[in-house]
Amino acid sequence: MNAFLDTLTDQDPLFVLAMGNTETGKIPGISAAGANPELTDYTPPADGELLLHGKCRSIDGVPITPDGIPTPAVISRAALNLLGTGTLLVDAGLNVTPEAPRVTLGGKAGGDIREATPVPYAEETYENARTLGKHLSRSSRPLVIGESIAGGTTTALGVLTALGYDAPVSSSLPENPLDLKREVVTAGLETSGMEPGEADPLEAVKEMGDPVIAAAAGLATGSETPVLLAGGTQMAAVAAVLARLDALDDVAIGTTRWILNDSSSDIEGLAAEIGVDLHATTLSFADTDIDGLRVYEQGVVKEGVGAGGLALVAEESVGRDAVQKETERVYRDLKE
Amino acid sequence: MNAFLDTLTDQDPLFVLAMGNTETGKIPGISAAGANPELTDYTPPADGELLLHGKCRSIDGVPITPDGIPTPAVISRAALNLLGTGTLLVDAGLNVTPEAPRVTLGGKAGGDIREATPVPYAEETYENARTLGKHLSRSSRPLVIGESIAGGTTTALGVLTALGYDAPVSSSLPENPLDLKREVVTAGLETSGMEPGEADPLEAVKEMGDPVIAAAAGLATGSETPVLLAGGTQMAAVAAVLARLDALDDVAIGTTRWILNDSSSDIEGLAAEIGVDLHATTLSFADTDIDGLRVYEQGVVKEGVGAGGLALVAEESVGRDAVQKETERVYRDLKE
């Protein structure tokens, strides 16, 4: 239906998952990417392991929200199975090492954006990711870039605000704690002394963001082939960085219906303001028998681990029904 | 000229460089991969940086032999330029971290094979590499696998001997210290209590090899696409491991003329015994103006960093003369 998506499905993309942690993500009430804030350190490596091995190794079971909803990595895994696409894990700054091969970029986990310079390695991470993106794209054709980081929508809001976008962001929680996120971002802006709209893009990541945004932006600018930023708000923040670097050519965002339908945010407006194309999968779990998936229709979790973008590419390739069926199969396998 | 090589050139391979260090490589007189034994820790990361960035970062200049001969990575870099092929660095067990993005496999640098269990992480490294090879091959099509590790022909002799091959091996030195290598291997066999020919292949790597052989073997077995093992003796050791794992389908060795012409070794006989196809580039520096390259014709250095295999693929694609010219250009650029 779309020339960009056609290229992506025709040319065997490589999926690159940028993983990281921040202290921002451990602020109570900020994130649902883990049963409790301390467990969020295990969520990205466990997501990565699930994609590579078909099950997690750093934890028993799979990452869940405080309400027990499973990670969107089950959707990603299903889409990757259908596409026969390989996954490369990138450690942009993790607290827990995945039990899997992973690219390291020399970064470390991020701090709390309310304090000074939470992402001191932003530039090094960006530059290393740029080199990686360049080399991977040469042989792998298109890149689909996903993320796994708790508290990522808050650091995304931080970067977007620093870059002058006044956009409400989504949340993995059923009730979006937007007031808390804004409080955190406002405190961060005060600490950094940044004037919204006047920040250099990498400075914005360094002072208000997280290592995953640095890595994803570097991968995208380095790539010589089309790039699908697979995610919601966080990939909007990446796109905002790319827009400032004049590096949005052949880049689009791919996300879920649940992000599009999130009345507490406005990703379509935000993407239009940034000037990046936005596509969404039509994947729905309205008619599934599986409770843990049907609740996605109520707006919990919504996106992550590249789920939306990967489902979109898989849907283009084999149809929506196949994506739903394979996700159900992956989910059932994990429960056994 | 060859269906296997045609597939490789037609399908945009990805070059994966497995890098490592061992204490074996620091035994005086064993290796020329560095101006002195202690500097060999810097050779693999510097080789990797040269391929990714066009210059080394961990050292000034480029890795050289004790006689000042430059690393074969200049040939690899030239071939990669001509092919437009991307490079992925793999840290199989390094003492010095490269200033570049690199995949880590959870291994550590190897010990001295004269002592017990010099490669304790062999199995973990192999398994992680297998996962990586599988995922990379899905999106990247064929893999060309190279190595950079000082003392690699000695650990290769160790693995080959443990697996029952009685083959003389090549050397980066003009005078092959074969007696010294055999002494080291004999001492290693005594320590490990291994009976030549009766070892399990991964046990052979663990007791007599190095982390790079573990990584290269894992990458090759994981790959679902054709694999070119780019190297000489060391890749023969990898092929020997693969033969024991019944994983030689769609695998060939690509090396240099200088390895083929090495009268102190017999790679053709060895490859035939293992049952792996062997191809060699016709690249020659007999008529070059550049002293640092012309000495390759005297049988110093001979191979490394995937030089032979990459030159072979480039030669298939753009012809031998272009490979020579581009290598001269890369060499001159580095001297400036």
Secondary structure: elements and pairs:
The structure is a homodimer of 336-residue chains.
Chain A: H1 3-10, E1 14-20, H2 43-53, H3 73-83, E2 87-93, E3 102-104, H4 122-140, E4 143-148, H5 152-162, H6 178-192, H7 201-208, H8 211-222, E5 227-230, H9 233-244, E6 251-255, H10 257-260, H11 267-274, E7 277-280, H12 291-294, H13 307-318, H14 320-335
Parallel strand pairs in A: 1-2, 1-4, 2-3, 4-5, 5-6, 6-7
Helix pairs in contact in A: 1-13, 2-3, 3-13, 3-14, 4-8, 5-6, 5-7, 5-9, 8-9, 9-11, 13-14
Q: How would you characterize this protein structure?
A:
The structure is a homodimer of 336-residue chains. With 336 residues, the first copy, chain A, is of the alpha/beta class. Chain A is 45% helix and 11% strand. Chain A contains 14 helices and seven strands. Chain A has helices at 3-10, 43-53, 73-83, 122-140, 152-162, 178-192, 201-208, 211-222, 233-244, 257-260, 267-274, 291-294, 307-318, 320-335, and strands at residues 14-20, 87-93, 102-104, 143-148, 227-230, 251-255, 277-280. In chain A, strands 3-2-1-4-5-6-7 form a seven-stranded parallel sheet. In chain A, strand 5, helix 9 and strand 6 (251-255) form a beta-alpha-beta unit. In chain A, helix 4 runs parallel beside helix 8 and helix 9 (233-244) runs parallel beside helix 11. The longest helix of chain A is centred in the middle third of the chain and has 19 residues, at 122-140. The mean pLDDT of chain A is 94. Chain A binds chain B through residues 12-15, 52-53, 84-88, 97, 99-106, 128-129, 131-132, 134-141, and chain B through 12-15, 52-53, 84-88, 97, 99-106, 128-129, 131-132, 134-141. Strand 3 of chain A pairs antiparallel with strand 3 (102-104) of chain B, so a sheet runs across the interface.
